[in-house]
Structures are given as C-alpha cells and as structure tokens.
Design a protein that fits this description.
With 573 residues, the protein is an alpha+beta fold. The chain has helices at residues 16-30, 33-36, 146-149, 177-181, 272-298, 305-334, 339-364, 376-404, 411-452, 456-488, 496-499, 502-521, 557-572, and strands spanning 7-10, 39-41, 44-46, 52-60, 64-67, 72-75, 98-103, 106-111, 115-119, 135-144, 164-165, 171-172, 205-211, 218-220, 225-228, 235-242, 252-255, 257-261, 534-539, 542-547.
Length: 573
C-alpha cells in the first residue's frame, strides 16, 4: 500500500513529549508536499480508528487559502446494512449556540467560535439528510503560534483546542470509550466517535462529512475552501483529518489534490526568501565569472591550465544557483516543480562540490606556482573527484526520490532506498575526509618547500591560501556547533519554520567567499606561465628575481642544474 502525504499522530501514554518529537520528525520525512509542490496529492486510506489522526502542515503567508474541494472521500467497505431514515439533529454544542442558515439544499451550522460546515448530502441527487447511524469525518485547520512552533518540542495541540490531555501524560485525539473513561470528552454524547475539539481554545476552522452506515458512498467536501485573512497571521498551519469512530465507523479512501497558496504564490511561505537568495547568489557568481573571464582574455598568452579550472568552477556554481532559483520561481508561479530545473540544480551542485575539492588540492600541490605539471597525481586526483561526484549524485537523487515519490513507493521500497542512501552518505564522508587530509598535507609540504627555498613572495600567497582555508574551517565548525546548540534549545534562535533555509544558505555564502578569495589569489596576470620557474634569491638584503626557464641556452650549466632540481622538487611535492 502506498503511503499517503499525510502523517499520522497516535495517542500516547506517559511518554507524550518523546512521541510528539518523534512524530514531528516523522511528519517532516513523510510529507512529500513541501518538496513536491503546493498542489499536494493525497491518495490513500483513512481507516476508522481512534488512536491516530492524519495531518498535513505547511507555511502560509496570509492572505492565502487552503482548498480541499477536490479531495474525494469514498467508502472502502459495504458498511453495516441500515434503513435510511432522515433524522433531525441538534448540532448545538454545550459551549456555544449555533446559528443555522439555509443555502439551497444544504444546511450550514456556523459557530461564533469557529466555522463548522455540515456536509449532509449522501450520494448524488439525493435529498439533503443525515442518516440514522451515520458517522463523521472531521477536518480542522489551525495556526500554530510562532511562540511554540519555533520550539524544539513544537506546539502542544491540546492547548490549541485539538485533542485532550489529562495532565498526567494521557493524550487522546478522539472521543472514544477510553477517552470518556479518562474524563477527556467534554462535549457529551454529541462528541462520541468524533475528533475532540475544544471551542474555548480552538481558533481555527472546522469541516466535517457525514458517512452513511452502509452502501457505496463517495463525496467531495463542498465547503472545502479555507480562506485565511491577513489578521489570521502568517506562519505554520496544520490540517487534521480524523475518522474517529472505530466502533461503527467505516474505512474510507481519499483521492485528489488539495492546494496551499500564500499571498505571493504557490511557493511555501518559508521558502520565498530562499528564491531571492539564490537569485542574489547567481548574480554574484555571474559578476565573478565575467571578471575572471575578462582577465583571462586579456592575459590569454600567459594563461595556465589552472585558470580554466577556476572558470569551470565559477561557471558551474553560477548554473547551480540559476537552476535552483528557476526551480523555486516556477514552483511559485505554477504550483508544481519543474523537474528539469530541480534535478539539474542538484547535479550542478554535486559537480561544484567535486570540482572545487579537486581545484583546492591542485592549488595546495603547487600547480602553477612551484611546478607546471602534477604528473601522475593529476589522474589520481581527477579520478577521486569523479568517484566523489558519482557517489554524491546517487545519494542526492535517491534522497529526493525517497521523499517526492513516496506516493508510489511502498514502505519497504522506501526503507531500502534510505538504507542505500545511508551507505552512500558514509562513502561520501570517507572521500571528503580523504580530500581534506590531502589538502592540508599538500599545503604543509608546499609551504615547507617554499620556506626552505626562501621563496617569500610565493610563500606569502600560500600563507593567504592557508588563512582562507582555516577561516572557512573555523566558520564551519562554529556554525555546526551553533546549529547543534540551537537544536537543543527549548526556544530556537533561528526560526526554522520561517527562515529554516538560512541554515543551508550560510554554507553557500561560506563557499562563495572562499572561492572569490582563491580567484583573486590565482587571477590571470602577465607572466603567469613562467611563474612556476621564477626563483627568488636573497642577496645583501635585496630580493633579486631571475628566470631559470632557459631550456635552449647552454651558457650556464649551474642554472640548468638548478632548474632541473627545482622541477623534480615540484614533482615530488
């Protein structure tokens, strides 16, 4: 059975906080919608059960709306045979009066505390009526205040009027026999077999469908438009669907799409800033690329291969940001993701990470500064980069598939994919460690060689390179520690519901700053081709430079001998 885009919350005993934290994580991993589109698909069962509810959540910038009018609820069994007898029923709750008003053949009950639309039609072309023995599917929408949504444990829904808790760790979502025994059902007989909604606390919207006890039944939600006004506030909204009556209730299926839309479009409200961020990053990459290419063209005759690697790295970084921004822009306009942009952006990101690691190792080995070739190390380095790119690409693509295609995959298939992802993540981490060890080992050897040869100008460049790398590593460590500490805080310093994208955007900024610094250190310039063979000698306190690249001149054997020794030193670095 394919999993639905809804997550489920089960009843809990004394370990309520642990269960809630686990289920919050499960909800994030289970929901394809935040990664797929704001046209969300729900194809799956809603069985009659009082021990769990189904929910979907998202971030809305008001004014906006959530429309579930296209969801079709249908019976999955024949139910219990019964005689269809219309029954008048008083829907007034014990807590507040309900004003009824007629709308054609439908009867709508409006609560002053929260909207409650009664769906009464049973089948097509039938008289509006509630059948004796009918059960109900409750649908509620509510806003989680940022004060609790931004905490480690999240909001306690019972404090928002959904479900009930006796204060001893006994949480119940539905008014079942068990809940009545605990004294958690405050609505009396009318609330039996229904979702527990406390009108004194609940400040959301409520819809429900009447399900006949027998026969084939199918129904869409007529009043499925949840309008969200600006006064309702932007933030995280949760929609709960509950088929609570496990005594006489019927198992149902739900098929169709439902829509979450914010004021700016279909893009989830907490990702809107990310779209502008990638637009700004793409502009920065474009400016850096143009500057580097112009300098490359000016000093084309003196160009060395390392300059082409810089151009390729900046070029790939630009296209990664361009496609990620384009993916979010299309998502915002159309409500669905453009798969070409999504996967192209992911693959460009993989290539950027791979080529940047190779490039830094090349610089640390001294290519273009202490030697003009890397010899056999070049093939080894490129091969390691290709392996890293392949493994990392497979990991990222499979991760996306496991989340976005969970409507198609069975639970076992998804578990198998996630197991493979875990193995690929371990392999990627191992290759990363190999790169990092190689980088700092090569950097130390190159700097020791330059220091022993009194090459102060070249050593100065590598001191700056080391400074860039150490500052980047220091920042990465501090930001990682900050993220860990923030995740354990009761109140998060970074509002992940609203600005969660910032946590990953910071890594992009760190990467770009390092790349920009290295591009300045290795910018195309006159004489770059001969720079690897320029030796600096110190005599009487004055620095003299001479070019030992005199291949065809037999006049000075000592110079030729020094050049040969120098080239071998580069090769052994």
């Amino acid at each position: 059975m394919a999993r639905t885009p809804y997550a489920r919350r089960q009843i809990s005993g004394n370990n309520n906080k642990t269960m809630k934290s686990f289920l919050s994580l499960f909800a994030v991993l289970s929901l394809p919608a935040p990664t797929v589109s704001e046209f969300r698909r729900f194809d799956g069962p809603i069985n009659a059960a009082s021990n769990y509810i189904h929910f979907s959540e998202g971030y809305i910038v008001t004014p906006g709306y959530i429309d579930i009018s296209n969801l079709v609820f249908a019976s999955a069994d024949e139910g219990t045979p019964n005689t269809y007898v219309p029954e008048d029923r008083d829907w007034n709750d014990d807590h507040s009066a309900v004003m009824e008003e007629s709308r054609g053949d439908d009867r709508v009950a409006n609560d002053d505390t929260y909207d409650r639309h009664l769906e009464e039609e049973i089948g097509d072309d039938t008289e509006s009526a509630i059948v004796s023995g009918s059960t109900y599917v409750d649908i509620v929408l509510f806003h989680e205040p940022s004060e609790c949504a931004n905490t480690r444990l999240g909001c306690d829904w019972t404090s928002l009027g959904v479900g009930a808790n006796d204060g001893l760790g006994n949480l119940r979502w539905c008014c079942s026999d068990d809940a009545k025994g605990l004294g958690l059902c405050k609505g009396g007989a009318k609330q039996e077999g229904r979702l527990i909604v406390d009108p004194d606390k609940f400040n959301g919207q409520h819809r429900f469908l009447g399900v006949p006890p027998s026969g084939t039944w199918s129904r869409a939600v007529k009043f499925g438009m949840f309008d969200l006004k600006e006064k309702d506030g932007s933030g995280k909204y949760v929609m709960v669907v509950a088929n609570c009556n496990d005594d006489i209730g019927r198992n149902l299926t739900v098929t169709g799409e439902y829509v979450w839309k914010s004021a700016h479009g279909y893009l989830p409200g907490n990702l809107f800033g990310e779209m502008y961020f990638y637009f700004a990053v793409a502009i920065c990459y474009l400016v850096l690329l143009l500057w580097y290419v112009i300098k490359f063209q000016i000093y084309r005759d003196a160009a060395i291969p390392i300059f082409q690697w810089f151009i390729a790295t900046i070029f790939i970084g630009f296209f990664e940001a361009f496609f990620k921004c384009g993916d979010l822009w299309v998502w915002n306009v159309d409500g669905v993701r453009f798969w070409f942009s999504l996967y192209t952006g992911v693959l460009f990101g993989v290539c950027k990470r791979a080529i940047s690691r190779v490039l830094v190792v090349m610089l640390c080995l001294g290519w273009g500064v202490t030697c003009d070739t890397l010899g056999g190390k070049f093939k080894t380095l490129v091969m390691l980069g290709l392996v890293y790119a392949g493994v990392s690409a497979a990991r990222d693509v499979m991760t996306i598939i496991s989340i976005t295609e969970n409507e198609i995959l069975t639970h076992n298939e998804e578990e198998e994919i996630l197991d493979v992802v875990s193995i690929l993540t371990f392999v990627t981490a191992f290759i990363d460690v190999t790169f990092y060890l190689w980088i700092f080992d090569a950097l130390n050897q190159t700097m020791q060689y330059l220091e022993s040869m009194n090459q102060s100008r070249k050593l100065k460049r590598y001191l700056r390179l080391r400074l860039f790398l150490l500052l980047s590593v220091l920042f990465a460590v501090l930001w990682s520690v900050f993220g860990i500490v923030d995740s354990y805080n009761s109140q998060r310093m970074v509002n992940e519901e609203e600005n969660g994208w910032v946590l990953t955007a910071v890594w992009e900024v760190n990467y770009f700053v390092v790349l920009m610094g290295l591009s300045c250190l290795w910018a195309p310039e006159a004489g770059a081709k001969e720079y690897a063979y320029v030796m600096e000698l110190s005599t009487l306190g004055n620095d003299l430079e001479f070019d030992t690249n005199v291949v065809d001149s037999p006049d000075d054997d000592s110079d030729e001998e020094e050049e040969s020794s120098f080239a071998l030193s580069c090769m052994s670095n």
